[in-house]
Amino acid sequence: MRRYRHEIDNVRSHLRTLWAVIGIQVVVILALEFCLLRAPNDIVVHIPPDLRSGAAIKPDSPEPANIYSFAFYIFQQLNRWPENGAEDYGKAIFSLAPYLTPKFQTELEKEVELKGRRGELINRVRGMQERVGHGYSEMRVDVLSESVWVVWLDMELQESVKGMSIKRTLIRYPLRVVRYAVDPESNPWRLALDGFSSEGPRRLLPEEIEGSINQDEEGDAVNE
């Protein structure tokens, strides 16, 4: 009888141990569920274009190369008028609105209205491309804060009316880029163009066309 009593005590002890393990597992599961509920539904990871040396990537922490790529792509699309600037410019502003701050969008809409009254957009075709040899480098992105950057784009602007070329010039655009997570569904970048920095766009000087970027040099402002 004594042997059976010991076996019963061992079984009871084993059951208590199992219940303790189950209790610990329940606590761990509840803690993990709580953490999952507090976690964001989605995160943005900006992957740098050059991974040959590896990279330490943090969620929602764009690198200068990502900022440059965003500014270049959105601004190029904004200035793509394939048929008629009187219609294409307004359509571009509307379609790219999630990537523009309200302030910059208002400025662009006023520009469309002004140019429209002057007849400067009728049948005008516009396109721009990056100047060869003036692509991304670290000097082309000024980090003003964790949420504000200035990107320096050297673009070749081409315009024509009814097939006749009327403008072909090289322009430096200092674009402000800011964090903008107002509508993540429409703007997965969570960035937006916020207009130009204080000096505004200007034509590239002859010595700058083949030289390196110099942000402190002064030039003539460009009236697009």
Strand content: 15-25%
Distance between the termini: 103 Å
Number of strands: 6
Per DSSP, the total helix count is: 5
| Average predicted confidence as pLDDT | 83
Shape: elongated
Low-confidence stretches: 214-221
The ordered H/E elements are: HHHHEEEEEEH
Most strands sheet: 6 strands, antiparallel
- Secondary-structure class: alpha+beta
Short description:
With 224 residues, this protein is an alpha+beta fold. Helices cover 38% and strands 21% of the residues.
Description:
This protein is of the alpha+beta class and 224 residues long. It is built from five helices and six strands, in the order H-H-H-H-E-E-E-E-E-E-H. The chain has helices at 2-38, 64-78, 85-95, 102-118, 206-209, and strands at residues 124-130, 141-143, 148-161, 164-179, 191-196, 202-203. The longest helix has 37 residues, at 2-38.
List the helices and strands and how they pair.
Elements: H1 2-38, H2 64-78, H3 85-95, H4 102-118, E1 124-130, E2 141-143, E3 148-161, E4 164-179, E5 191-196, E6 202-203, H5 206-209
Antiparallel strand pairs: 1-3, 2-3, 3-4, 4-5, 4-6
Helix pairs in contact: 3-4
Keywords:
224 residues, alpha+beta, six-stranded antiparallel beta sheet, 5 helices, 38% helix
